[in-house]
Design goal:
Length: 110
């Protein structure tokens, strides 16, 4: 349940910050347009710039859930390919490899 609260609270905060940003740009920009300190095109450019910032932020927020889904899919596929019992059982060692290994040099050099 905690994951859903975190997800929806982050989504709420992200949407609230985006819309508060647009409202503040329109309010401040509208004041500057009325007083003649700026043009309407400047306000439109700021609103457009804010939307350009919000898109990558949404991608960053959605990255972890997509990663979790991808991990789960990979795990399901790997279990289907290798079989359900290979991960739970141990493979017994071969009888010839139970002791220590000895290597002999085959080269004639020093």
């Amino acid at each position: 349940m905690g994951v859903f609260k975190l997800k929806f609270s982050m989504n709420f905060l992200m949407n609230m910050m985006h819309h508060l940003g647009i409202a503040s740009i329109l309010a401040i920009g509208g004041y500057y347009v009325v007083t003649g300190e700026t043009q309407i095109g400047t306000v439109v450019a700021f609103v457009s710039g804010l939307s350009q910032i919000n898109d990558p932020w949404g991608d960053l927020v959605n990255w972890f859930p997509e990663l979790s889904v991808t991990r789960t899919k990979y795990d399901l596929i790997s279990r289907a390919v290798t079989g359900p019992h290979t991960a739970q059982t141990e493979v017994p060692p071969r009888s010839g490899f139970a002791g220590s290994a000895r290597f002999q040099s085959t080269s004639d050099g020093p």
